[in-house]
Design brief:
There is one protein chain. By secondary structure, the protein is mainly α. Helix content is 73%, strand content 0%. The protein has helices spanning 4-21, 28-39, 43-55, 59-69, 74-97, 110-130, 138-143, 157-189.
Length: 190
């Protein structure tokens, strides 16, 4: 099971590919929602278990959340509706504030967000299963920042901060590139 970086690179890469072959129907909005749900989505359960074991409080609750959310379909069933409402609202706000441009100028609707959330979850577990080693190998423990551990998560908090910063920078760069390229495209057309 790879860490968050490969999830982000895989989904942003495939999202950019979809953007280029769809003639604008798959926009940067679609790509961001898809990538965030593959990167962070189901690992919210793993993150809650890691943070509770690191802090030493609420370990049973963290494990319960891990068991409920870190699943290809339970993530969609439990968090699908609330997150699709949030992403739809954020899409509208990002469009109005100019954080992301859209070819059509229309924000994502709730149905699109739910489908992108589902695609992100399934892409996440697709990569997880490519690297699965039954959760007990040294390679598995070394690569992962989430997953199987017996007592306390074997994750360096500094590494979590660095990976979080790098992935945030990657998303920010994606937004900047897409805003900049759409601005150039629109200035060339008019």
């Amino acid at each position: 099971m790879p860490g968050p970086g490969p999830h982000m690179m895989y989904t942003l890469g495939s999202g950019v590919g979809l953007m280029s072959v769809s003639n604008g129907r798959f926009s940067p909005h679609h790509c961001i929602v898809y990538a965030i749900n593959a990167f962070l989505g189901p690992d919210l359960g793993s993150f809650s278990e890691w943070i509770s074991s690191t802090l030493g409080v609420g370990q049973k609750l963290g494990s319960l959340i891990m068991d409920a959310i870190h699943h290809p379909f339970y993530y969609i069933l439990i968090l699908g509706l609330p997150l699709s409402l949030l992403y739809s609202w954020l899409s509208r706000v990002f469009l109005q504030k100019g954080f992301l441009d859209s070819f059509s100028g229309v924000p994502l609707n709730k149905r699109q967000c739910l489908l992108l959330l589902s695609a992100g979850s399934l892409s996440h577990f697709f990569l997880d299963h490519l690297f699965e080693e039954n959760g007990h190998s040294s390679t598995y423990s070394w690569i992962l920042s989430t997953g199987w551990w017996k007592s306390r998560a074997a994750v360096n908090p500094d590494a979590v901060i660095v990976v979080g910063f790098l992935c945030t920078f990657l998303i920010g760069g994606f937004i900047y590139i897409n805003r900049h390229s759409l601005w150039i495209l629109s200035s060339e057309l008019f």
